[in-house]
Amino acid sequence: MVESSISIKAPAKINARLEITGKRANGYHDLFSLMIPVELFDHINIRLNDSGKITLISSGFSVPDDPSNLVYRAAKLFHDMADIEIKGIVITLNKNIPVAAGLGGGSSDAASTLLALNELYSLPITENELLQLALSLGADVPFFIRAVPSIATGVGEILEPIENWPLYWYLIITPQIEVSTAWVYQNYKMELTSNKYDYIRKSLKNGDIIIRDILKNDLEKVTCTSFPLISTLKRRIMDAGAEGAMMSGSGPSVFGVFKSRKKAVMAMELFASDDLRHISVARGFIKKAV
After folding, report:
1. Residue 186, class by beta-carbon neighbours within 10 Å (0-12 exposed, 13-18 middle, 19+ buried)?
2. Active-site residues: which are they?
3. What is the average pLDDT across 204-233?
């Protein structure tokens, strides 16, 4: 029997490392990235009705409520693949994750919509099929199907779970800056990569992680040059006692890594008077076993 509604939390992510390793003929970039889910959530509720259409209602950070939204597209694709007639669904999206901020909110919302619909309809689609659907929506979307710390390669779709990622606390700051992901990648100039991949994999496997050796984001060269405030925020976070600080994704969000919630909250208080789009402290997300 199909349940009539379901709710799900969609976590944000930070990139603890992001190296661009190549560029493909189709314009996509190959990368080596460490993607970490964090406990900053969008909230999604899906309710069945008899309207004969998909209705999306959003609140919080502004996003379109039309077919251009990844949540809407995910719902349509799911019904097509599962060969389920859309008798009517209402999707309510509460956006707590800043939009276009390098935190993966839209991708997470899309993946969570696929997961919620699969649960709502009693699992008609396998996980591999969900991953294929997710990739058709965006390179970051497959990561959020499993939402566990992972090494991402290829264009981001090849995922290796990290078993020993420490349970850090993160101070996440999104300044009042608008950054286009497409613009950042278009302006990135390929350079020699660090070739530290074996060292990183060994460190992660052994659990002897030195976070400052892990943190690296090639896209900072582009974003920080045009928006020096990002570098300033990183420096202030380090001065506040972080183990490390870096821009996430293509920006403009910056995060600091802390070993305790107390230290992260104390650092957050130093930014109380700043005009920011978002600031929060979030623990690394631990996905509960189903």
Report:
1. exposed
2. 13, 140
3. 92
CB atoms within 10 A of CB 6: 17
Q: What is the mean pLDDT of residues 173-192?
A: 91
Contact of 235 with 256, CB cutoff 8 Å: no
Is the CB of residue 32 less than 8 Å from the CB of residue 153? yes
Task: Give pTM, 2 decimals.
Answer: 0.94
Q: Is residue 252 reached through a cis peptide bond, with omega within 30 degrees of 0 on the bond before it?
A: yes
Q: CB-based burial of residue 259 (10 Å sphere; 0-12 exposed, 13-18 middle, 19+ buried)?
A: middle
For residue 226, give the amino acid letter. S
Q: Which amino acid is at 5?
A: S
Nearest to 106 by CA among 135, 71, 134: 71
CA atoms of 70 and 64, how far apart (whole Å): 10
DSSP tag of 44: E
Domains of the chain: 5-161 (3.30.230.10), 169-283 (3.30.70.890)
Q: Which residues contact 197 (CB under 8 A, 6 or more apart)?
A: 32
* Cβ–Cβ < 8 Å for 12, 41: yes
